[in-house]
Structures are given as structure tokens and as C-alpha cells.
Amino acid sequence: MKNREDDDTDENPRCASGRARLYIEESLSAGASLMLDRDQSHYLVTVLRMGEGEAVLLFNGRDGEWAARIAQAHKKNCVLELAARTRAQEPLPDIWLLFAPVKKARLDFIAQKATEMGAAVIQPVFTERTVVTRLKDERLQANAVEAAEQCGLVAVPEVREAEKLGTLLAKWNEIAPGRRILFCDENEGPGATLAALEKLAGEGKKGAPLAVLVGPEGGFSPGEREILRGRSDTLALSLGPRIMRADTAAIAALAVVGLMLGDW
After folding, report:
1. Three-state secondary structure readout of the chain
2. pLDDT of 7 higher than 50
3. Does domain 9-87 have CATH number 2.40.240.20?
């Protein structure tokens, strides 16, 4: 995995390898021209002070990454012309992150870092001990897009609407047939995780569809834990002997699963 410097002091926080990158919705093809929306036009022309003829990289999560140049540099409606594809579309690992929402700043962190870690789906779930009950889906999506722009990804995870854990589990076989749930349980023995993941890897489960489930800072309730442990498609994991914040646990779990069963 390539590292990048923390972007707090970057002059160009949406750049990967020193080149401006933008996520757009439109289809991308050689010779096409497109007009950016007001925010993206302002970003290129006013914030980055880019002008006509300068290069930009574009991606939409479907058509790979494309090189483009600024044909008309207007801060309200910048026009770009596409030249050639620089990278083919690359799929994300088939790993979903299911997590109990936390406070706003830490929620931003989860969306950003889960995107960097390669999660294909970001799914908030309300558990019995979840404190945060209101979410802005567009904010989660914006954080995922920005992280993809920063880190050179050509795909952006799907951000789904929050659901109650019980509701999600009740329809799991319908919406995610064959997808195993790996749920982080602080009551699980600290030595069990590695052995369990090695066993799955040995069974040929590396690259198989998975969902990592992380509870709130108060942990899962006894009833929720009983339901999860009673499911044949669910495996309990430990994240070690130390108590972690919920946002830290989410990223730690993705790292462990990504290493053992993902594309690392």
C-alpha cells in the first residue's frame, strides 16, 4: 500500500501524485467534453488557481481514470476536454463495513478511512446501544468521494442508508446471500481472531464476500450478541486485549480482514 502525507497542510488535498483528481458522475470517453458543477469549477480555478490547458485526472467509478485538460477556465462552469484513459477500472475488495454511527467528526473519519482501506459498501447500523440516531448520508458520501480523490482510487464505496441491526439481519439472506458476517466482539478471546481468519483463508475464502460488523462504544447488548453468535453465517472476532474507540475498532477490523482475506 502506498502512503501519502497527511492532507491537513497539503496545498492540493484532492491530488494524488501531485495531479488534481476529481470524481464526477458523467460517463468518460476519449474526445468528450464536460462542464463541471459550480463547486468543482471553483475548486480548480479559484482554490487551485488552475487555468486553460492544465491537466486534470477524472474518474467516475465505472470507466477508469482519464486524463483531461481545462478547455475553459471559469470559476462557475469550468469546461474540460478528455484525452485518454490512464487507468482501467479496478474493483474494490468485496468487503462491506457495517458500523454503529458515532459523533460527527469520528463519523467523517470512518467514512474516509474505510474508503482508503478498500471497503466496497459503507453501511451504518443502529444497535440497541447506539447513541447517534441522525445521519446525513450526503456527508458520508462526500467524505468517501474526497478520500477516493486523495488516494488515487478509481472506485468509490457505496454508502447505504442506516438501518436497525435487527432489520438488516432479518433480511440478510435476501440482500447478501452467501456473505459471511465477521462481528467484532470484545468478549471473544484475544487469541481467536488470527486462527479463525487463517482457517477461512485455508478454506479458500480469501476474496470471498464478507461483511465486517462493528458495534457502538458501549458494545453490543447481550441480546444482540446472542443473536449474532447463533447465526450460522456469522463469526465472532476479537481485536485484541485493549479497549478501542468505535471508530478505531472499525478501521482496525478492516485492516486485519483486508490482510488475511482481502486483496493485500
Report:
1. CCCCCCHHHCCCCCEECCEEEEECCCCCCCCCEEECCHHHHHHHHHHCCCCCCCEEEEECCCCCEEEEEEEECCCCCCEEEEEEEEECCCCCCCEEEEECCCCHHHHHHHHHHHHHHCCCEEEEEECCCCCCCCCCHHHHHHHHHHHHHHCCCCCCCEECCCEEHHHHHHCHHHHCCCCEEEEECCCCCCCHHHHHHHHHHHCCCCCCCEEEEECCCCCCCHHHHHHHHCCCCEEEECCCCCCCCHHHHHHHHHHHHHHHHCCC
2. no
3. yes
